[in-house]
């Protein structure tokens, strides 16, 4: 029967998201204005081609010179600017690795944020991992012309697994450890700095019928930002498992979610709730401390969920998948904020948290104006919120936001009542950071 | 009773006298409405009140229609705008706007289509080769259905299931260059599901099968020839629909033999896919042309061709819903549906199964009216966007 009632969506606050298609298109979605609205596709980068299907993405989400790396099905890695989509370098992976057949696609990709600052800003460091388990770390020079690219040193390569297929690859927040797992590959953790395997998981024992479920990890996520020891993994046998390196090699906690393979996992910034999406389009959030389901995300999700991403600041998660929709959800109420039809199978989604409300493109000449506008708005809004936000002012003054945020999340855990105030505080801070960013971003454009 | 009837008559006389009395009456009925007949316990009294109410309703309706007609007439005479015609609320026109419906000028859609698994077949770089197998146990109607399928789908090969795993079968099909695998599931000696698997890396679709009518169960059925059939896909308009449509399309060879006049129709309506299999026959049968028709046809090339009677001898065990029919250009005169095989997916809530003639006729008529053949050949597959009148 056709649907005869419309589903009401409340719209979302200003944000910017990037989606990656199965035919290699990158679409930029923005909610432009200050009131709640529906995200719209504002830009489309790339040409449609099936061999350019996006396999893995990674982004450095910072104010100055943000970078985005995209691994394609034809084993090409593109490094682009997430602001305007300019391709900075293209690396075809055949040079770095011995095997580059159809089956040996890149599944894991990570752009290092930390080492980049130590080196010259024109270099970026990449971790890649293919299905067969060939991992490599290399640094690349960002050339202005997209054709030339050069690896500065010979990439550090190593093999993660002897057999099986790697399906998930994650790097922890401090970028010291990498996590690999897949079909027939137990989860293992590598120290990236000296390339040693430091930990390997052990499959759970046979069940009471003596049946052993084969190892098949499909997704993984580090639970906390400042702790690499705890992580969550989803399996093809629809189990979600919590591992703790410091405790044991078997899962500390495991529970089932519905009947189809877990396809996507994302951690919340509060450090104890995870979002789980599976192959039949069900999504739910769990409290990982107890293994209890907090609630399901009910909507008209109808295709396998490929990726779930939590917005670093706003209480919003985005999910995308084979039903060609990008959906934005409220994490607290678990209600659908808005859904955007994107015409293709969406493989990945990312948030650009440093998005300027006024729009980056809204031109340099009127910069002074916009600044004053913003300031005036600040002045207007402040009297209402001053009381709450003043408490957090000390925390939020500094520039390096992320670490502060983890503090925030801790605080949030402690007291629910202060929650709203913090949010506002961080929002104020963001507005300031936007001002900063405007200056910094304007430079490469010029 | 007699007394009561007299009372009735009296009231009728009063009512029909003037408009003012009519108004009074409506007021009265409103009052009476509060006293529903079902509240009366005496059966005779109740039935009397009921008949009176019913009669009044009828009169009201008639008066309304009369007033409406009068208004239209008046408007016509005065040259004013006609009063708005009320459109009944149906499921179709209260449908929520579906943003996933593909637009014909959508470049991204074509790019996506070119990138999908079926494009090599649909661009005729690869000929479809189908492996048909069954579930583990099957009997009676299952094999009959499979033999029908073999006659419908060219280049289809039946393999016994044996005790093989489906994964093994797919592996085998991959090695033998099959393009799709169809698995017929049988439950209680009745085929109840179809599994269509694209090989090597295509999608898998599972269809429930209901209301299966085999060819031999149809009265006056014909026998299909071994020509490659034409394919009509109706209404696969949404993004998912186009994918399903392409999945079905990839089962058939893309170069139909028009000589065979075989048509295989997949019609999608409210997420049910109806399957029909026909042969059309062109019979010349002179018919006196209606005048309006003649006027319409004047500008056409086929003016010298006399209007011919359309005989739709549809011997369908079940309803045939809103066929969109394709006529190959060289003939373009009339259709005679010789026979059809029906494997329908008819949901239970369609009440009007007996309307088979009507729907068939209306479509045939509309085709005959549209003499300019607005169909475009898309690699010999004609996509007619069904009842909305858009044709792509």
TrEMBL record, chain A:
Region of interest (Disordered), ranges: 362-446
Any one GO cellular component localisation term in the record: preribosome, large subunit precursor
GO BP terms, alphabetized: ribosomal large subunit biogenesis
Gene3D superfamilies xrefs: YVTN repeat-like/Quinoprotein amine dehydrogenase
Residue spans of biased composition, Basic residues class: 402-412
Cross-referenced CDD domains: WDR74
InterPro entries: Quinoprotein_ADH-like_sf, WD40/YVTN_repeat-like_dom_sf, WDR74/Nsa1
Polar residues bias locations: 363-374
Biased composition annotated in UniProt, kind: Basic and acidic residues: 391-401, 413-431
PANTHER family: NOP SEVEN ASSOCIATED PROTEIN 1, WD REPEAT-CONTAINING PROTEIN 74
Protein name: Uncharacterized protein
UniProtKB/TrEMBL annotation, chain B:
Gene3D superfamilies (UniProt xref): Probable brix-domain ribosomal biogenesis protein (3.40.50.10480)
InterPro entries hit by this protein: Brix, IMP4/RPF1
Region annotation Disordered: where it falls in the sequence: 1-66
GO cellular component annotations of the record: nucleolus; preribosome, large subunit precursor
Stretches with biased composition (Basic and acidic residues): 27-51
GO MF terms held by the record: rRNA primary transcript binding
Biased composition (Basic residues): 52-65
Pfam families assigned to the protein according to its UniProt record, in alphabetical order: Brix (PF04427)
SUPFAM superfamilies xrefs: Class II aaRS ABD-related
One GO BP: maturation of LSU-rRNA
Location of the Brix domain: 128-322
Top-rank lineage group of the source organism: Eukaryota
Protein name, entry field: Brix domain-containing protein
């Amino acid at each position: 029967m056709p649907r005869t009632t419309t589903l009401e969506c409340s719209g979302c606050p200003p944000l910017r998201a990037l989606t990656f298609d199965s035919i290699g298109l990158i679409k930029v979605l923005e909610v432009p204005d200050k009131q709640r609205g529906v995200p719209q596709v504002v830009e489309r980068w790339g040409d449609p081609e099936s061999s350019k299907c996006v396999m893995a993405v990674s982004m450095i989400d910072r104010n100055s010179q943000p970078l985005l790396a995209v691994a394609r099905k034809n084993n090409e890695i593109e490094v682009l600017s997430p602001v305007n989509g300019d391709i900075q370098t293209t690396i075809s992976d055949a040079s770095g690795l011995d095997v580059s057949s159809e089956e040996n696609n890149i599944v894991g990709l990570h752009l290092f944020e930390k080492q980049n600052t130590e080196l010259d800003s024109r270099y970026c460091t990449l971790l890649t991992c293919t299905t067969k388990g060939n991992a490599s770390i290399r640094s690349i020079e960002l050339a202005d012309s997209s054709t030339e690219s050069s690896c500065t040193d010979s990439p550090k390569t190593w093999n993660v697994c002897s057999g099986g297929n790697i399906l998930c690859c994650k790097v922890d927040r401090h970028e010291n450890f990498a996590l690999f797992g897949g079909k027939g590959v137990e989860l293992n953790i590598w120290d990236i700095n000296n390339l040693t395997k430091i930990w390997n998981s052990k499959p759970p024992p046979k069940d009471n019928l003596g049946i052993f479920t084969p190892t098949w990890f499909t997704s993984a996520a580090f639970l906390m930002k400042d702790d690499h020891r705890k992580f969550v993994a989803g399996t093809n046998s629809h189990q979600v498992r919590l591992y703790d390196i410091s405790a044991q090699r078997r899962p500390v906690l495991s529970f089932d979610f519905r009947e189809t393979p877990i396809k996507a996992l994302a951690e919340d910034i509060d450090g104890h709730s995870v979002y789980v999406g599976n192959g039949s389009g069900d999504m739910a959030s769990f409290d990982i401390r107890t293994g209890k389901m907090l609630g399901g995300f009910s909507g008209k999700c109808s295709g396998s969920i490929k990726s779930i991403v939590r917005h670093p600041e706003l209480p919003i998660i985005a999910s995308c998948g084979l039903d060609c929709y990008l959906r934005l959800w409220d994490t607290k109420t678990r209600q659908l904020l808005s859904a955007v039809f994107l015409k293709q199978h969406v493989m990945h989604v990312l948030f650009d948290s440093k998005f300027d409300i006024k729009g980056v493109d809204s031109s340099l000449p009127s910069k002074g104006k916009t600044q004053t506008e913003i300031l005036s708005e600040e002045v207007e809004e402040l009297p209402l919120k001053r009381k709450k936000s003043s408490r957090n002012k000390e925390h939020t003054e500094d520039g390096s936001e992320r670490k502060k945020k983890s503090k925030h999340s801790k605080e949030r855990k402690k007291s629910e009542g202060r929650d709203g105030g913090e949010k506002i505080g961080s929002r104020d801070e963001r507005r300031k950071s936007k001002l900063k960013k405007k200056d910094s971003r304007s430079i490469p454009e010029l | 009773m007699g007394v009561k009837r007299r009372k009735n008559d009296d009231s009728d006389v009063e009512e029909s006298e003037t408009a003012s009395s009519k108004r009074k009456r409506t007021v009265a009925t409103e009052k009476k409405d509060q006293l529903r007949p079902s509240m009366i316990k005496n059966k005779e009294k109740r039935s009397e009140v009921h008949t009176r109410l019913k009669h009044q309703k009828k009169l009201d309706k008639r008066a309304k229609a009369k007033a409406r007609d009068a208004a239209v007439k008046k408007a016509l005479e005065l040259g004013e705008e006609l009063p708005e015609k009320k459109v009944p609320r149906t499921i179709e026109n209260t449908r929520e706007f579906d943003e996933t419906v593909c637009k014909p000028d959508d470049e991204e859609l074509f790019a996506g289509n070119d990138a999908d698994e079926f494009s090599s077949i649909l661009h005729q770089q690869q000929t479809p080769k189908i492996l048909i197998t069954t579930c583990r146990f099957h009997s009676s109607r299952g094999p009959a259905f499979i033999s029908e399928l073999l006659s419908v789908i060219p280049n289809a090969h039946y393999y016994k299931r044996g005790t093989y795993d489906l994964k093994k079968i797919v592996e085998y099909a991959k090695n033998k260059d099959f393009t799709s695998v169809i698995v017929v599931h049988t439950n209680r000696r009745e085929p109840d599901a179809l599994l269509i698997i694209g090989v090597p890396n295509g999608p898998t679709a599972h269809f429930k099968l209901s209301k299966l009518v085999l060819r031999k169960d149809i009265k006056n059925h014909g026998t299909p020839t071994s020509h490659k059939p034409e394919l009509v896909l109706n209404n696969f308009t949404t993004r998912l629909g186009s994918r399903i449509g392409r999945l079905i399309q990839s089962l058939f060879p893309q170069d139909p033999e028009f000589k065979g006049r075989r048509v295989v129709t997949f019609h999608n309506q409210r997420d049910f896919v109806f399957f029909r299999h026909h042969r059309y026959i062109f019979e010349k049968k002179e018919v006196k042309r209606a005048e309006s028709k003649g006027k319409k046809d004047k500008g056409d090339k086929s003016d010298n061709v006399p209007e011919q009677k359309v005989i739709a001898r549809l011997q369908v065990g079940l309803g045939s819903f809103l066929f969109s029919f394709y006529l190959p250009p060289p003939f373009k005169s009339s259709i005679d549906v010789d026979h059809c095989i029906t494997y329908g997916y008819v949901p239970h809530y369609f009440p009007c199964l007996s309307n088979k003639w009507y729907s068939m006729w209306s479509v045939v008529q509309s085709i005959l009216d549209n003499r300019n053949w607005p169909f475009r050949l898309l690699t010999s597959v004609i996509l007619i966007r069904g009842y909305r009148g858009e044709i792509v």
